[in-house]
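Please produce the structure of this protein holding fe (ii) ion.
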Amino acid sequence: MTQRVVLPRILETGPGTLQRLPDILSTLACRNPLIVTDQVMMSLGYADRLTDILKTAGMTWGLFADTEPEPTESSLLPAVEQLRQGSFDAVVALGGGSAIDSAKAISVLGLHGGRMADYKVPRDVSEPALPVVAIPTTAGTGSEATRFTIITDGETDEKMLCMGLAFMPYAAIVDYELTLSVPARVTADTGIDALTHGIEAYVSRKAGPFSDQQALAAIALIAPNLRRVYHNPEDREAREAMMMGSTLAGIAFSNASVALVHGMSRPIGAHFHVPHGLSNAMLLPAITRFSLPGAPDRYARCARAMGIAGAEDSDDNANDKLLAELRALNRELEVPSMAAFGIDEARFMELRQLMAEQAQASGSPGNNPRVPSQAEMVELYEQVWNQE
Ligand SMILES: [Fe+2]
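Below is the modeled complex.
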Protein backbone atom coordinates (compact mmCIF):
# COMPACT_ATOMS: atom_id res chain seq x y z
CA MET A 1 0.00 0.00 0.00
CA THR A 2 1.10 3.59 -0.50
CA GLN A 3 1.57 6.14 2.24
CA ARG A 4 2.47 9.83 2.12
CA VAL A 5 4.83 10.68 4.96
CA VAL A 6 4.64 14.19 6.40
CA LEU A 7 7.00 15.28 9.18
CA PRO A 8 8.26 18.43 10.89
CA ARG A 9 11.37 19.81 9.15
CA ILE A 10 13.32 19.93 12.40
CA LEU A 11 13.01 17.68 15.44
CA GLU A 12 15.37 18.89 18.16
CA THR A 13 15.51 16.15 20.79
CA GLY A 14 17.14 15.70 24.16
CA PRO A 15 17.65 17.44 27.50
CA GLY A 16 18.17 21.18 27.41
CA THR A 17 17.16 21.61 23.76
CA LEU A 18 14.77 24.38 24.75
CA GLN A 19 17.90 26.55 24.42
CA ARG A 20 17.97 25.90 20.68
CA LEU A 21 14.77 27.82 19.98
CA PRO A 22 16.52 30.93 18.60
CA ASP A 23 18.63 28.77 16.23
CA ILE A 24 15.52 27.01 15.01
CA LEU A 25 13.65 30.26 14.46
CA SER A 26 16.65 31.70 12.56
CA THR A 27 16.78 28.60 10.36
CA LEU A 28 13.14 29.22 9.49
CA ALA A 29 13.95 32.92 8.80
CA CYS A 30 11.75 34.00 11.73
CA ARG A 31 12.59 36.63 14.38
CA ASN A 32 9.35 37.72 15.98
CA PRO A 33 7.15 34.84 17.16
CA LEU A 34 3.84 34.91 18.99
CA ILE A 35 4.24 32.59 21.97
CA VAL A 36 1.07 30.60 22.64
CA THR A 37 0.91 29.01 26.09
CA ASP A 38 -1.22 28.69 29.22
CA GLN A 39 -1.31 29.87 32.80
CA VAL A 40 0.28 26.67 34.11
CA MET A 41 3.39 27.35 32.03
CA MET A 42 3.39 30.92 33.32
CA SER A 43 3.23 29.85 36.97
CA LEU A 44 5.86 27.12 36.51
CA GLY A 45 8.19 29.79 35.11
CA TYR A 46 8.62 27.95 31.80
CA ALA A 47 7.27 30.88 29.77
CA ASP A 48 9.81 33.19 31.43
CA ARG A 49 12.61 30.77 30.61
CA LEU A 50 11.51 30.83 27.00
CA THR A 51 11.35 34.62 26.75
CA ASP A 52 14.74 34.92 28.50
CA ILE A 53 16.23 32.67 25.82
CA LEU A 54 14.70 34.80 23.06
CA LYS A 55 15.81 38.02 24.75
CA THR A 56 19.41 36.81 25.02
CA ALA A 57 19.32 36.04 21.29
CA GLY A 58 18.09 39.57 20.54
CA MET A 59 14.68 38.44 19.36
CA THR A 60 11.28 40.00 20.00
CA TRP A 61 8.01 38.21 20.69
CA GLY A 62 4.35 38.53 21.62
CA LEU A 63 2.71 36.47 24.34
CA PHE A 64 -0.72 34.86 24.54
CA ALA A 65 -0.96 32.84 27.75
CA ASP A 66 -4.67 32.02 27.91
CA THR A 67 -5.07 28.79 25.99
CA GLU A 68 -7.54 26.40 27.60
CA PRO A 69 -7.53 22.66 28.11
CA GLU A 70 -9.64 21.03 25.36
CA PRO A 71 -9.67 24.40 23.55
CA THR A 72 -12.84 25.93 22.13
CA GLU A 73 -12.81 28.17 19.08
CA SER A 74 -13.84 31.22 21.13
CA SER A 75 -10.86 30.71 23.48
CA LEU A 76 -8.53 31.25 20.48
CA LEU A 77 -10.08 34.36 18.99
CA PRO A 78 -8.16 36.92 21.12
CA ALA A 79 -4.90 35.30 19.96
CA VAL A 80 -6.06 35.32 16.34
CA GLU A 81 -6.72 39.05 16.70
CA GLN A 82 -3.31 39.57 18.35
CA LEU A 83 -1.64 37.73 15.49
CA ARG A 84 -3.43 39.86 12.87
CA GLN A 85 -2.61 43.14 14.62
CA GLY A 86 1.09 42.34 15.07
CA SER A 87 3.89 41.59 12.65
CA PHE A 88 4.57 38.07 13.87
CA ASP A 89 6.39 35.66 11.58
CA ALA A 90 5.94 32.44 13.56
CA VAL A 91 3.93 30.88 16.38
CA VAL A 92 5.76 29.13 19.22
CA ALA A 93 3.55 26.72 21.16
CA LEU A 94 4.64 25.88 24.71
CA GLY A 95 2.54 23.41 26.67
CA GLY A 96 0.59 20.19 26.37
CA GLY A 97 -1.51 19.10 23.42
CA SER A 98 -4.10 21.78 24.06
CA ALA A 99 -1.59 24.64 23.73
CA ILE A 100 -0.07 23.09 20.60
CA ASP A 101 -3.47 22.39 19.04
CA SER A 102 -4.48 25.99 19.85
CA ALA A 103 -1.31 27.37 18.24
CA LYS A 104 -1.92 25.41 15.05
CA ALA A 105 -5.46 26.75 14.77
CA ILE A 106 -4.35 30.31 15.60
CA SER A 107 -1.71 30.12 12.87
CA VAL A 108 -4.26 29.05 10.24
CA LEU A 109 -7.10 31.36 11.32
CA GLY A 110 -4.70 34.31 11.70
CA LEU A 111 -3.40 33.93 8.17
CA HIS A 112 -6.43 32.68 6.25
CA GLY A 113 -9.43 33.87 8.32
CA GLY A 114 -12.81 32.13 8.51
CA ARG A 115 -14.24 29.92 11.22
CA MET A 116 -12.70 26.71 12.53
CA ALA A 117 -15.66 24.73 11.17
CA ASP A 118 -14.52 25.75 7.67
CA TYR A 119 -11.36 23.67 8.22
CA LYS A 120 -12.75 20.46 9.71
CA VAL A 121 -12.60 17.03 8.07
CA PRO A 122 -13.15 15.91 5.38
CA ARG A 123 -11.40 19.08 4.13
CA ASP A 124 -7.65 18.61 3.64
CA VAL A 125 -6.10 21.91 4.72
CA SER A 126 -2.92 22.11 2.67
CA GLU A 127 -2.42 25.87 2.28
CA PRO A 128 0.71 27.06 4.08
CA ALA A 129 0.12 28.61 7.50
CA LEU A 130 2.52 30.64 9.63
CA PRO A 131 5.38 28.36 10.84
CA VAL A 132 4.59 26.71 14.17
CA VAL A 133 7.41 25.61 16.47
CA ALA A 134 5.93 23.17 18.99
CA ILE A 135 7.46 22.63 22.42
CA PRO A 136 5.52 19.87 24.21
CA THR A 137 5.61 19.78 28.00
CA THR A 138 3.75 16.48 28.35
CA ALA A 139 4.59 13.09 26.87
CA GLY A 140 1.27 12.28 25.32
CA THR A 141 -0.58 13.86 22.48
CA GLY A 142 2.25 13.83 19.96
CA SER A 143 0.71 17.00 18.53
CA GLU A 144 4.23 18.38 17.93
CA ALA A 145 4.56 15.88 15.08
CA THR A 146 1.02 15.53 13.73
CA ARG A 147 -0.96 17.15 10.93
CA PHE A 148 -4.05 17.36 13.11
CA THR A 149 -5.64 19.75 15.52
CA ILE A 150 -8.80 19.30 17.55
CA ILE A 151 -10.84 22.38 18.43
CA THR A 152 -14.23 22.27 20.16
CA ASP A 153 -17.20 24.13 18.77
CA GLY A 154 -18.40 25.78 21.99
CA GLU A 155 -22.01 25.97 20.77
CA THR A 156 -22.50 22.35 19.78
CA ASP A 157 -19.78 20.76 21.98
CA GLU A 158 -18.49 19.03 18.84
CA LYS A 159 -14.76 18.24 18.91
CA MET A 160 -13.84 19.26 15.39
CA LEU A 161 -11.01 17.24 13.87
CA CYS A 162 -8.99 19.33 11.42
CA MET A 163 -6.37 17.78 9.20
CA GLY A 164 -3.73 18.73 6.68
CA LEU A 165 -0.22 19.95 6.03
CA ALA A 166 -1.20 23.37 7.40
CA PHE A 167 -1.40 21.85 10.88
CA MET A 168 2.03 20.16 10.82
CA PRO A 169 4.55 22.13 12.92
CA TYR A 170 7.63 23.26 11.01
CA ALA A 171 9.78 22.31 13.97
CA ALA A 172 9.47 20.65 17.37
CA ILE A 173 11.65 20.76 20.47
CA VAL A 174 11.30 17.43 22.25
CA ASP A 175 12.98 18.12 25.60
CA TYR A 176 11.94 15.62 28.28
CA GLU A 177 13.21 17.89 31.09
CA LEU A 178 10.04 19.93 30.54
CA THR A 179 7.96 16.93 31.64
CA LEU A 180 9.70 16.36 34.99
CA SER A 181 7.17 18.47 36.88
CA VAL A 182 4.03 17.03 35.27
CA PRO A 183 1.68 15.71 38.00
CA ALA A 184 1.01 11.97 38.22
CA ARG A 185 -2.58 12.07 36.95
CA VAL A 186 -1.65 14.04 33.82
CA THR A 187 1.42 11.83 33.33
CA ALA A 188 -0.79 8.73 33.35
CA ASP A 189 -3.53 10.16 31.12
CA THR A 190 -1.18 11.56 28.50
CA GLY A 191 0.97 8.42 28.61
CA ILE A 192 -2.01 6.14 27.94
CA ASP A 193 -2.98 8.48 25.10
CA ALA A 194 0.48 7.98 23.57
CA LEU A 195 0.28 4.20 23.98
CA THR A 196 -3.15 4.28 22.31
CA HIS A 197 -1.68 6.28 19.40
CA GLY A 198 0.99 3.64 18.87
CA ILE A 199 -1.45 0.72 18.99
CA GLU A 200 -4.13 2.38 16.85
CA ALA A 201 -1.59 3.50 14.23
CA TYR A 202 -0.28 -0.07 14.02
CA VAL A 203 -3.68 -1.77 13.66
CA SER A 204 -5.18 0.98 11.46
CA ARG A 205 -6.40 0.15 7.97
CA LYS A 206 -4.22 3.07 6.88
CA ALA A 207 -1.05 1.60 8.40
CA GLY A 208 1.95 1.39 6.11
CA PRO A 209 5.59 0.31 6.28
CA PHE A 210 6.85 3.69 7.52
CA SER A 211 4.23 4.25 10.23
CA ASP A 212 4.56 0.61 11.34
CA GLN A 213 8.18 1.16 12.34
CA GLN A 214 7.39 4.34 14.26
CA ALA A 215 4.40 2.71 15.96
CA LEU A 216 6.28 -0.37 17.17
CA ALA A 217 9.23 1.71 18.35
CA ALA A 218 6.84 4.02 20.20
CA ILE A 219 5.02 1.12 21.88
CA ALA A 220 8.35 -0.41 22.95
CA LEU A 221 9.44 2.87 24.55
CA ILE A 222 6.13 3.71 26.23
CA ALA A 223 4.83 0.40 27.63
CA PRO A 224 7.72 -0.44 30.02
CA ASN A 225 8.05 3.15 31.24
CA LEU A 226 4.47 4.25 31.87
CA ARG A 227 4.29 2.78 35.39
CA ARG A 228 7.75 4.11 36.20
CA VAL A 229 6.92 7.74 35.41
CA TYR A 230 3.59 7.45 37.21
CA HIS A 231 5.19 6.24 40.42
CA ASN A 232 8.39 8.25 40.17
CA PRO A 233 8.08 11.55 38.31
CA GLU A 234 11.81 12.22 38.70
CA ASP A 235 12.83 9.06 36.82
CA ARG A 236 14.73 10.81 34.05
CA GLU A 237 15.47 7.69 32.03
CA ALA A 238 11.78 6.76 31.96
CA ARG A 239 10.72 10.35 31.23
CA GLU A 240 13.13 10.45 28.29
CA ALA A 241 11.76 7.19 26.88
CA MET A 242 8.17 8.39 27.29
CA MET A 243 8.91 11.68 25.54
CA MET A 244 10.55 10.04 22.54
CA GLY A 245 7.84 7.37 22.48
CA SER A 246 5.14 10.00 22.48
CA THR A 247 6.67 11.88 19.53
CA LEU A 248 7.18 8.66 17.56
CA ALA A 249 3.59 7.63 18.29
CA GLY A 250 2.49 11.05 17.01
CA ILE A 251 4.46 10.51 13.80
CA ALA A 252 2.93 7.03 13.48
CA PHE A 253 -0.72 8.03 13.77
CA SER A 254 -0.28 11.25 11.84
CA ASN A 255 0.92 9.24 8.84
CA ALA A 256 -1.47 6.30 9.39
CA SER A 257 -4.47 7.23 11.53
CA VAL A 258 -6.08 6.63 14.87
CA ALA A 259 -9.07 4.31 15.02
CA LEU A 260 -12.09 3.32 17.08
CA VAL A 261 -10.77 4.23 20.56
CA HIS A 262 -10.20 7.83 19.49
CA GLY A 263 -13.40 7.91 17.46
CA MET A 264 -15.51 6.95 20.49
CA SER A 265 -13.39 8.88 22.97
CA ARG A 266 -13.83 12.35 21.47
CA PRO A 267 -17.62 12.51 22.04
CA ILE A 268 -17.15 11.43 25.69
CA GLY A 269 -14.60 14.20 26.13
CA ALA A 270 -16.83 16.76 24.45
CA HIS A 271 -20.06 15.97 26.33
CA PHE A 272 -18.66 15.06 29.74
CA HIS A 273 -15.38 17.01 29.84
CA VAL A 274 -13.23 13.98 30.46
CA PRO A 275 -9.53 14.65 29.69
CA HIS A 276 -8.64 13.11 26.35
CA GLY A 277 -6.17 10.49 27.56
CA LEU A 278 -8.48 9.43 30.37
CA SER A 279 -11.46 8.77 28.10
CA ASN A 280 -9.12 6.76 25.85
CA ALA A 281 -7.99 4.75 28.87
CA MET A 282 -11.61 4.04 29.88
CA LEU A 283 -12.31 2.66 26.39
CA LEU A 284 -9.04 0.94 25.48
CA PRO A 285 -9.52 -2.54 27.04
CA ALA A 286 -13.10 -3.08 25.80
CA ILE A 287 -12.46 -1.70 22.33
CA THR A 288 -9.28 -3.73 21.95
CA ARG A 289 -11.27 -6.87 22.81
CA PHE A 290 -13.91 -5.92 20.20
CA SER A 291 -11.29 -5.13 17.54
CA LEU A 292 -8.94 -8.10 18.01
CA PRO A 293 -10.62 -10.43 15.47
CA GLY A 294 -9.94 -7.82 12.75
CA ALA A 295 -6.14 -7.99 13.10
CA PRO A 296 -5.07 -10.68 15.60
CA ASP A 297 -1.53 -10.85 14.22
CA ARG A 298 -1.03 -7.09 14.48
CA TYR A 299 -2.35 -6.87 18.04
CA ALA A 300 -0.06 -9.79 18.95
CA ARG A 301 2.91 -7.84 17.60
CA CYS A 302 1.86 -4.89 19.76
CA ALA A 303 1.90 -7.20 22.80
CA ARG A 304 5.39 -8.40 21.88
CA ALA A 305 6.60 -4.81 21.37
CA MET A 306 5.22 -3.97 24.83
CA GLY A 307 7.42 -6.71 26.25
CA ILE A 308 4.50 -8.64 27.76
CA ALA A 309 4.59 -11.51 25.25
CA GLY A 310 7.49 -13.27 23.57
CA ALA A 311 8.25 -14.91 20.25
CA GLU A 312 7.22 -18.23 21.80
CA ASP A 313 3.67 -17.00 22.45
CA SER A 314 1.02 -17.81 19.85
CA ASP A 315 -0.96 -14.81 18.60
CA ASP A 316 -3.92 -15.91 20.73
CA ASN A 317 -1.75 -16.13 23.85
CA ALA A 318 -0.14 -12.77 23.13
CA ASN A 319 -3.57 -11.19 22.68
CA ASP A 320 -4.86 -12.65 25.97
CA LYS A 321 -1.82 -11.09 27.64
CA LEU A 322 -2.50 -7.79 25.88
CA LEU A 323 -6.07 -7.59 27.21
CA ALA A 324 -4.93 -8.53 30.72
CA GLU A 325 -2.14 -5.93 30.60
CA LEU A 326 -4.42 -3.10 29.42
CA ARG A 327 -6.77 -3.80 32.33
CA ALA A 328 -3.88 -4.10 34.78
CA LEU A 329 -2.41 -0.84 33.53
CA ASN A 330 -5.70 0.99 34.11
CA ARG A 331 -5.87 -0.41 37.64
CA GLU A 332 -2.31 0.52 38.48
CA LEU A 333 -2.61 4.00 36.97
CA GLU A 334 -5.86 4.45 38.90
CA VAL A 335 -8.02 5.21 35.89
CA PRO A 336 -11.46 5.87 37.41
CA SER A 337 -14.65 4.27 36.17
CA MET A 338 -16.97 6.64 34.32
CA ALA A 339 -19.28 6.65 37.34
CA ALA A 340 -16.40 7.40 39.70
CA PHE A 341 -15.31 10.22 37.39
CA GLY A 342 -18.75 11.74 37.91
CA ILE A 343 -20.46 11.02 34.60
CA ASP A 344 -24.22 10.80 35.07
CA GLU A 345 -25.50 7.39 33.94
CA ALA A 346 -28.87 8.59 32.67
CA ARG A 347 -27.27 11.36 30.63
CA PHE A 348 -24.63 8.97 29.26
CA MET A 349 -27.30 6.50 28.15
CA GLU A 350 -29.38 9.30 26.68
CA LEU A 351 -26.42 10.52 24.62
CA ARG A 352 -25.00 7.15 23.54
CA GLN A 353 -26.79 7.11 20.17
CA LEU A 354 -25.68 10.69 19.37
CA MET A 355 -22.12 9.89 20.51
CA ALA A 356 -22.06 6.87 18.18
CA GLU A 357 -23.19 9.10 15.31
CA GLN A 358 -20.54 11.69 16.13
CA ALA A 359 -17.89 8.99 16.40
CA GLN A 360 -18.84 7.67 12.98
CA ALA A 361 -18.84 11.15 11.44
CA SER A 362 -15.23 11.69 12.56
CA GLY A 363 -14.13 8.90 10.21
CA SER A 364 -11.88 7.24 12.81
CA PRO A 365 -14.03 4.09 13.31
CA GLY A 366 -13.71 3.41 9.57
CA ASN A 367 -9.96 2.94 10.05
CA ASN A 368 -10.44 0.27 12.72
CA PRO A 369 -9.38 -3.29 11.88
CA ARG A 370 -12.96 -4.35 12.74
CA VAL A 371 -15.32 -1.63 11.52
CA PRO A 372 -18.32 -1.34 13.83
CA SER A 373 -21.88 -0.49 12.89
CA GLN A 374 -23.46 2.39 14.76
CA ALA A 375 -25.51 -0.11 16.77
CA GLU A 376 -22.29 -1.88 17.77
CA MET A 377 -20.81 1.42 18.93
CA VAL A 378 -23.90 2.04 21.06
CA GLU A 379 -23.43 -1.43 22.54
CA LEU A 380 -19.75 -0.71 23.19
CA TYR A 381 -20.64 2.48 25.06
CA GLU A 382 -23.04 0.42 27.20
CA GLN A 383 -20.41 -2.26 27.74
CA VAL A 384 -17.79 0.25 28.82
CA TRP A 385 -20.23 1.74 31.31
CA ASN A 386 -21.17 -1.67 32.69
CA GLN A 387 -17.63 -3.08 32.88
CA GLU A 388 -16.92 -0.87 35.85
FE1 LIG B 1 -4.96 11.00 21.34
